[in-house]
């Protein structure tokens, strides 16, 4: 098992970690419906109460947090693990929210695209043009589910467009170091897709048999599922991998470089911080922990990161 240090415990399904310049980690607690600051000594402060289900999070060009809110899950705790199940009983829709990190003021930015309601926004990454790509996982109920997709929007709220649709449970989203490729990880299939960007929010679509225009980069065998992802400075794609409880690192050509195991089957997110971005922060969501460990490659500096 991987050697790591535990920074915080007792979190309510943490995801969306963001390494802040003051050494703290901002993240969401999906079950608690909060944006939370974690200090290096493990203390936590609540930044904002978002309602619904805050999921992915990123710093925008204005220094605010942009939240993918999935609208809420039902929850189950068993065998010492907390995990989300189907759509929450009080669910209305998914949304993109803007949170002021100083005051906690939370504003709705988008809840639909061209009249189609967002179902379960999940993960987010900003480009260099003031816009962001985000995945919508869709939403599942006891006997049916909604499709998911990949979207692009501007931080000022003036534009949102559908980039690729439908995608089966799209989760993690990240950009290549040169900004020419957007990666999407599919949860249920454990497949990694790439979309070649031709202009902000526009991608080149590959023909059938691609189900949505993306290029298949890699997939995993057995029962494994993909969650969020982060890209390192060399362009490798590091994907939190559910069930096996790991972070799987892929080269851009799909070669598996390593799989780093953790003692939690709900290993959900990774981000990079610390000196030279060589520290990986990983959310072990089922057991409510934020952990850290040295990473062999430095992380990619995100657009608009302080």
What does this structure look like?
With 306 residues, the chain is mostly beta strands. The chain has one domain: 6 Propeller (Neuraminidase), CATH 2.120.10.30. The protein has strands at 5-8, 14-19, 25-29, 34-38, 44-49, 54-59, 65-69, 73-78, 81-87, 95-99, 106-110, 112-113, 116-117, 121-126, 131-136, 148-154, 160-167, 170-175, 181-186, 191-199, 202-204, 215-219, 225-231, 237-242, 246-250, 256-261, 267-273, 279-284, 289-294. Strand 23 and strand 24 (237-242) form a beta hairpin. The radius of gyration is 17 Å and the shape is globular. The model has no long low-confidence stretch (mean pLDDT 97).
**Helical stretch tally:** 0
- Judging by the overall fold, what is the CATH architecture? 6 Propeller
The 3D shape can be described as globular
Determine the N-to-C terminus distance: 33 Å
Low-confidence stretches: none
CATH superfamily: TolB, C-terminal domain
Strand content: over 45%
CATH class: Mainly Beta
Number of domains: 1
How are the elements arranged and paired?
Layout: E1 5-8, E2 14-19, E3 25-29, E4 34-38, E5 44-49, E6 54-59, E7 65-69, E8 73-78, E9 81-87, E10 95-99, E11 106-110, E12 112-113, E13 116-117, E14 121-126, E15 131-136, E16 148-154, E17 160-167, E18 170-175, E19 181-186, E20 191-199, E21 202-204, E22 215-219, E23 225-231, E24 237-242, E25 246-250, E26 256-261, E27 267-273, E28 279-284, E29 289-294
Task: Summarize the entry for a quick read.
This protein is 0% helix and 53% strand.
List keywords for this structure.
29 strands, five-stranded antiparallel β-sheet, Neuraminidase, 306 residues, mainly beta, four-stranded antiparallel β-sheet
